[in-house]
Design a protein that fits this description.
The protein has about 325 residues and is mainly alpha-helical. The chain is about 55% helix and about 10% strand.
Length: about 325
Amino acid sequence: MSTAVSTALPAALPSPVQGVWHLGPVPLRAYALCILAGIVAGLWITSKRWSAKGGRADFPLDVAVWAVPLGVVGARLYHVLTSPDAYFGPGGQPLRALYVWEGGLGIWGAVAGGALGAWIACRRAGYRLAPFADAVAPGLLVAQALGRWGNWFNNELYGRATDLPWALTVHDWDESTGRALTGPDGAAVVLGTFHPTFLYESLWCLLSAAVIVLADRRLRLRRGQAFALYVVLYTAGRSVFEALRVDEAELIAGLRVNQWVSALVLLVALVALVRSRRRHGGGPDLPLERVPSLPSPAPTPPAGDTQSQTGAPNVNESAQPSRREHDHPDS
């Protein structure tokens, strides 16, 4: 029985031979469509979680206006800075550093740029950043999971050669045309079979998103803890997947730059999460607003409406609590 099943399984997972289609003069790039699908899914999940926290359901769209462009710019800058030889090294083409549609977006640049955009939007709306970061954490992981399939369409970012049943067939790829190169017989040229690191990371992101949602419900995570857990889970998986990759990258002491960055960010996030749990534990979170609103002042009584005339104390003098009783520092 086992022999029959093994024979029925494909020798390797397939890869596309084309990643760009043309609608008239307009190119439709699978990489961009995967990124767009991830953004839409992430916004939908974030909107649901933000509404559950008591925020405006449409506020994540306001954040996206700032976070998405800055995230793309940050992602591309991170990629170019950590892989400069392809653009500025011998034989490099500096202008291709602007060709975002060919792939090459660094997640840490995206997170940094997106966080800056989210901070700007939250500050303008009067919201705290940390609760919004908690709301966006699972959606961000789902967006990353969908975005990774753009690498599959581009036949890129695969791991070491392997003959495992789930090995990925990779073609010799022409980035300028978005198609696999073909041989004399017209068939796509196959480089070999490799670890599908894009698939590993996509599945890990989905699993991590589920863990965060479950932890949020069971452990009642407080401000900033869900996002810290996102960073811990993602970097733990990314450290493993990065070690499998064979694409060119800058090395420091024999390790890829992304491995060092993931390890450092993992350590910082883990310390922050442990300290936050020890200090705050779980329970009801703080208000979303940066500055709590003060109660509306009592209406001013008509002239002459004093205690001597009505027999009741003047509401502005004795019943109104002092402003100081309502003020408390933003924590």
